[in-house]
Amino acid sequence: MNGGVAGSIMRQLSGKEEWGYGGGRGSRRWGRGGYGDRSLKHLEGVHRHIGDAGGGMVLKKRVMVVVDHTTRAKHAMMWALTHVANKGDVLTLLHIVSPHNDSHSPPLLADSLGALCKACKPEVEVEALVIQGPKLATVLSQVKKLEASVLVLGQGKPSAFCCLFASSQEDFVEQCINRADCLTLAVRKQSGGLGGYLVSTRWQKNFWLLA
């Protein structure tokens, strides 16, 4: 997806345009070498500079995705790679594990997902972070520390009793959307042959993106 189309999606999802309604630490890097209540100008400016054939300094943005072993997280990662990250951008895969987790599985997962992203889109720089700590606090702190432009989260189907209470995952996603210091997108791949994705932001909920 080129920078112009990706920029259009970002403007739509940020509420600036109308959108059709549809229902220990380790790090690895592949490749060479806030949004929030702030103005959209920074993000739009990044998109304008990416792919500029005129030369000069090329700006890049950091797209952060929270990953784990779930299918929804993998769908969100691939959506961020194909719909948000452009040539020269940094895609940060953030895997948060319990402080009491001594398994070697987290870094293996981060490695494999990072390698997959790099193979699918070599022009995007990919890094994987494995951090032990509380999930929400770690996400919010890493968004601020790394100055992420966009945060992408996997979103599951609403719980059957969503009118009475939200699941812990739903609450986590909502907290990130409302509190992260950047544009935050919750993504759920449509099932049942409908195709496309449902995307939620601070301003718009479950908007259907047929792409």
Automatic annotation (TrEMBL):
Transmembrane segments: none annotated. InterPro entries: Rossmann-like_a/b/a_fold, UspA. Residues 61-188 form the UspA domain. It comes from the Eukaryota. SUPFAM superfamilies: Adenine nucleotide alpha hydrolases-like (SSF52402). PANTHER family: ADENINE NUCLEOTIDE ALPHA HYDROLASES-LIKE SUPERFAMILY PROTEIN. This is UspA domain-containing protein. It comes from Spirodela intermedia (Intermediate duckweed).
